[in-house]
Structure to design on (186 residues):
C-alpha cells in the first residue's frame, strides 16, 4: 500500500512539473552552423530548437561562440528570458519591452528569490546583440549572447526560464512563465 501511494505521489509530481513546463528536453541542443539574424523577427529556420507554449514561442540556437534566444509572445507588454536556473532565484535574466514611442528597453537582471534586480557584475558585456519588435499584438525579443558566459566546458544542460507580462514596465508580475532544461549536445 505504501509503495503504491509513493508511486502515485511521484506520478502526480511529474504531471505537475510537465504541466508547468519544467522538464528536460529530450532533443539535444547541438553546436550548429545555422546562422541567426538578430533583428527582432524570428524565422524558424534560424533556430535549431523551438517550442510553442501557446502564450509564447521559445527559440534557441547555439554556435561555437554565440547562444541565440528568441521569444515571440502574445503580449504588447514585457518579455523576459533567464539562464542558469529553472527558477528566478539564481538566474541571469534579460527583460525588455517596446515603449509607446517605439524605442526598445532591455535590462539585465539577477533573480533573487521570487524577484529580480539590477545585476552586480558586468552581465551586459555578455550581450553580443539584441533586437525587439512589437507587431500584431505580439512582442518579440531576440538576443545573442557570448556562449562562454553561460555554457562551460563539460556542461550537460542549459536551464532556461521565460515569461511575459501585460505592461510596458520592468515591475509588474508575469501573466505567463515557464522553465525548460535543454540537454547540450556536441
Amino acid at each position: 500500500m505504501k509503495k503504491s501511494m509513493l508511486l502515485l505521489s511521484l506520478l502526480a509530481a511529474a504531471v505537475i512539473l510537465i504541466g508547468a513546463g519544467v522538464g528536460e528536453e529530450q532533443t539535444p541542443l547541438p553546436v550548429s552552423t545555422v546562422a541567426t539574424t538578430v533583428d527582432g523577427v524570428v524565422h524558424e529556420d534560424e533556430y535549431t530548437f523551438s517550442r510553442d507554449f501557446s502564450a509564447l514561442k521559445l527559440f534557441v540556437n547555439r554556435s561555437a561562440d554565440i547562444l541565440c534566444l528568441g521569444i515571440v509572445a502574445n503580449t504588447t507588454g514585457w518579455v523576459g528570458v533567464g539562464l542558469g536556473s529553472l527558477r528566478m532565484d539564481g538566474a541571469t535574466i534579460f527583460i525588455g519591452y517596446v515603449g509607446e514611442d517605439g524605442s526598445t528597453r532591455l535590462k539585465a537582471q539577477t533573480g533573487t528569490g521570487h524577484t529580480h534586480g539590477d545585476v552586480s557584475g558586468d552581465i551586459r558585456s555578455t550581450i553580443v546583440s539584441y533586437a525587439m519588435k512589437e507587431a500584431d499584438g505580439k512582442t518579440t525579443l531576440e538576443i545573442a549572447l557570448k556562449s562562454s558566459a553561460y555554457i562551460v566546458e563539460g556542461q550537460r544542460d542549459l536551464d532556461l526560464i521565460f515569461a511575459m507580462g501585460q505592461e510596458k514596465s520592468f515591475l509588474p508580475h508575469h501573466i505567463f512563465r515557464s522553465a525548460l532544461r535543454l540537454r547540450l549536445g556536441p
Q: What stands out?
A: The chain has one helix and twelve strands. The mean pLDDT is 83. Helices lie at 2-19. The domain at 25-184 is CATH 2.60.40.1210 (Immunoglobulin-like).
